[in-house]
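[audit] Reproducing an earlier prediction to check determinism. Same input, same settings, fresh worker. If the C-alpha coordinates differ from the archived copy the diff job will pick it up downstream; this log only records the rerun itself.
[audit] input (193 residues):
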Amino acid sequence: MANLIFRFRVSLEDQEHIMRMIDILPNQTFSDLQQVIGTAFNFEVASSACFYKCDHNWIKSKKMIESDPEGTEQTALKEKISDPHQKFYHVYHLEAGWNFLVELDKIIPVNNSIVDYPFVVDAKGKAPKQFPNAKKIDDEDESDPESGENYHDSELIADGSFDDMLIDEDGNESVGSSSEESPEPEEDQSSLE
Protein backbone atom coordinates (compact mmCIF):
# COMPACT_ATOMS: atom_id res chain seq x y z
CA MET A 1 0.00 0.00 0.00
CA ALA A 2 1.23 3.48 -0.84
CA ASN A 3 2.12 6.01 1.83
CA LEU A 4 0.78 9.52 1.50
CA ILE A 5 2.76 12.73 1.61
CA PHE A 6 1.37 16.21 2.12
CA ARG A 7 2.97 18.83 -0.11
CA PHE A 8 2.51 22.32 1.31
CA ARG A 9 3.07 25.61 -0.48
CA VAL A 10 4.45 28.06 2.10
CA SER A 11 4.87 31.77 1.37
CA LEU A 12 5.34 34.95 3.36
CA GLU A 13 2.07 36.79 3.83
CA ASP A 14 3.27 40.10 2.35
CA GLN A 15 5.72 38.61 -0.15
CA GLU A 16 4.03 35.65 -1.83
CA HIS A 17 6.78 35.50 -4.49
CA ILE A 18 9.05 34.12 -1.73
CA MET A 19 7.79 30.55 -1.59
CA ARG A 20 8.85 27.09 -0.45
CA MET A 21 7.29 23.72 -1.30
CA ILE A 22 7.54 21.31 1.62
CA ASP A 23 6.84 17.58 1.71
CA ILE A 24 5.81 16.14 5.07
CA LEU A 25 4.12 12.98 6.30
CA PRO A 26 0.49 13.22 7.51
CA ASN A 27 1.36 11.72 10.90
CA GLN A 28 4.08 14.32 11.54
CA THR A 29 3.17 17.19 13.82
CA PHE A 30 2.64 20.91 13.50
CA SER A 31 5.92 21.26 15.40
CA ASP A 32 7.67 19.37 12.58
CA LEU A 33 6.02 21.66 10.03
CA GLN A 34 7.01 24.76 12.01
CA GLN A 35 10.64 23.60 12.23
CA VAL A 36 10.94 22.86 8.51
CA ILE A 37 9.39 26.25 7.68
CA GLY A 38 12.01 27.95 9.85
CA THR A 39 14.80 25.96 8.22
CA ALA A 40 13.45 26.64 4.72
CA PHE A 41 13.50 30.40 5.34
CA ASN A 42 16.80 30.41 7.30
CA PHE A 43 15.08 31.56 10.48
CA GLU A 44 16.08 30.80 14.04
CA VAL A 45 13.88 28.39 15.95
CA ALA A 46 10.68 30.15 16.95
CA SER A 47 10.14 30.34 20.69
CA SER A 48 6.47 31.17 20.22
CA ALA A 49 4.18 30.48 17.28
CA CYS A 50 0.65 29.51 16.36
CA PHE A 51 -1.43 28.15 13.50
CA TYR A 52 -4.91 29.23 12.44
CA LYS A 53 -7.15 27.23 10.14
CA CYS A 54 -8.32 29.39 7.20
CA ASP A 55 -11.05 29.27 4.59
CA HIS A 56 -10.36 29.54 0.85
CA ASN A 57 -10.07 33.36 1.12
CA TRP A 58 -7.46 33.17 3.91
CA ILE A 59 -9.99 34.28 6.54
CA LYS A 60 -8.72 32.93 9.87
CA SER A 61 -10.84 30.94 12.23
CA LYS A 62 -10.01 30.76 15.92
CA LYS A 63 -6.45 29.97 16.95
CA MET A 64 -6.02 26.28 16.42
CA ILE A 65 -2.56 25.21 17.51
CA GLU A 66 -0.05 27.00 19.75
CA SER A 67 3.62 26.18 20.20
CA ASP A 68 3.52 24.37 23.50
CA PRO A 69 4.04 20.72 24.40
CA GLU A 70 0.31 19.92 24.09
CA GLY A 71 -0.08 21.98 20.90
CA THR A 72 2.40 21.68 18.07
CA GLU A 73 4.32 18.77 19.60
CA GLN A 74 1.32 16.46 19.92
CA THR A 75 -1.02 17.38 17.07
CA ALA A 76 -0.58 15.41 13.86
CA LEU A 77 -1.24 17.30 10.63
CA LYS A 78 -3.83 14.75 9.49
CA GLU A 79 -5.95 15.55 12.58
CA LYS A 80 -6.60 19.12 11.38
CA ILE A 81 -6.88 18.66 7.61
CA SER A 82 -10.43 18.38 6.37
CA ASP A 83 -9.94 19.76 2.85
CA PRO A 84 -7.57 18.57 0.07
CA HIS A 85 -6.48 22.22 -0.27
CA GLN A 86 -6.52 23.09 3.42
CA LYS A 87 -5.13 26.53 4.28
CA PHE A 88 -3.38 27.59 7.47
CA TYR A 89 -2.18 30.99 8.61
CA HIS A 90 1.05 30.52 10.54
CA VAL A 91 2.49 33.17 12.86
CA TYR A 92 6.06 31.89 13.04
CA HIS A 93 7.48 34.12 15.72
CA LEU A 94 4.90 36.03 17.76
CA GLU A 95 7.38 38.72 18.85
CA ALA A 96 8.90 39.27 15.39
CA GLY A 97 5.59 38.94 13.57
CA TRP A 98 6.49 36.65 10.66
CA ASN A 99 3.27 35.43 9.05
CA PHE A 100 3.13 32.60 6.55
CA LEU A 101 0.40 31.37 4.23
CA VAL A 102 0.51 27.57 4.33
CA GLU A 103 -1.62 25.72 1.79
CA LEU A 104 -1.93 22.00 1.18
CA ASP A 105 -1.04 21.87 -2.51
CA LYS A 106 -1.17 18.11 -3.15
CA ILE A 107 -1.57 14.77 -1.48
CA ILE A 108 0.94 12.48 -3.14
CA PRO A 109 1.03 8.67 -2.95
CA VAL A 110 4.57 7.36 -2.55
CA ASN A 111 5.72 3.74 -2.62
CA ASN A 112 8.62 2.57 -0.46
CA SER A 113 10.08 6.00 0.20
CA ILE A 114 13.62 6.14 1.57
CA VAL A 115 13.49 9.91 2.07
CA ASP A 116 13.54 11.48 5.54
CA TYR A 117 10.59 13.80 5.98
CA PRO A 118 9.92 16.68 6.20
CA PHE A 119 12.05 18.35 3.54
CA VAL A 120 12.01 21.30 1.13
CA VAL A 121 11.18 20.25 -2.44
CA ASP A 122 11.38 23.67 -4.13
CA ALA A 123 12.34 27.22 -3.23
CA LYS A 124 11.63 30.48 -5.04
CA GLY A 125 12.84 33.89 -3.94
CA LYS A 126 15.44 34.89 -1.38
CA ALA A 127 14.27 34.72 2.22
CA PRO A 128 14.44 38.00 4.15
CA LYS A 129 16.45 38.39 7.35
CA GLN A 130 14.44 37.23 10.33
CA PHE A 131 15.42 40.29 12.40
CA PRO A 132 16.20 43.01 9.82
CA ASN A 133 16.47 45.82 12.39
CA ALA A 134 18.71 43.97 14.80
CA LYS A 135 21.86 45.91 15.59
CA LYS A 136 25.11 44.04 15.27
CA ILE A 137 27.13 44.17 18.47
CA ASP A 138 30.42 45.88 17.74
CA ASP A 139 33.52 46.10 19.93
CA GLU A 140 33.57 49.85 19.34
CA ASP A 141 30.28 50.18 21.26
CA GLU A 142 31.63 48.65 24.47
CA SER A 143 32.07 51.59 26.80
CA ASP A 144 31.74 52.46 30.44
CA PRO A 145 28.38 54.23 30.82
CA GLU A 146 29.78 56.70 33.39
CA SER A 147 33.12 57.67 31.84
CA GLY A 148 32.37 56.85 28.21
CA GLU A 149 35.75 55.06 27.95
CA ASN A 150 35.93 52.00 25.74
CA TYR A 151 36.98 48.80 27.46
CA HIS A 152 37.43 45.18 26.57
CA ASP A 153 37.69 42.15 28.83
CA SER A 154 40.94 41.15 27.14
CA GLU A 155 42.46 44.53 28.03
CA LEU A 156 41.44 44.15 31.68
CA ILE A 157 43.08 40.76 31.90
CA ALA A 158 46.14 41.75 29.88
CA ASP A 159 46.96 44.74 32.09
CA GLY A 160 46.99 42.57 35.23
CA SER A 161 43.96 44.17 36.87
CA PHE A 162 43.03 40.84 38.41
CA ASP A 163 46.53 39.71 39.46
CA ASP A 164 45.87 40.25 43.17
CA MET A 165 42.53 38.39 43.10
CA LEU A 166 42.82 34.90 44.58
CA ILE A 167 40.31 32.09 44.51
CA ASP A 168 40.70 29.39 47.15
CA GLU A 169 39.88 25.68 46.75
CA ASP A 170 36.25 26.31 47.76
CA GLY A 171 35.80 28.92 45.02
CA ASN A 172 35.84 31.89 47.42
CA GLU A 173 37.43 35.09 46.16
CA SER A 174 39.88 37.04 48.28
CA VAL A 175 42.23 39.92 47.69
CA GLY A 176 45.81 39.44 48.72
CA SER A 177 49.20 38.36 47.55
CA SER A 178 50.09 34.95 46.30
CA SER A 179 53.19 33.01 47.31
CA GLU A 180 55.08 35.01 44.72
CA GLU A 181 55.83 38.56 45.80
CA SER A 182 54.32 41.09 43.41
CA PRO A 183 56.34 44.23 42.68
CA GLU A 184 55.37 47.47 44.40
CA PRO A 185 53.61 49.96 42.12
CA GLU A 186 55.75 52.84 40.97
CA GLU A 187 54.98 56.22 42.51
CA ASP A 188 53.70 58.94 40.27
CA GLN A 189 56.65 61.35 39.96
CA SER A 190 54.47 64.26 38.79
CA SER A 191 52.79 64.59 42.21
CA LEU A 192 56.18 64.86 44.00
CA GLU A 193 57.34 67.93 42.15
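[audit] rerun output stored. Observation attached for the diff report: Residues 30-40 form the longest helix (11 residues).
[audit] end
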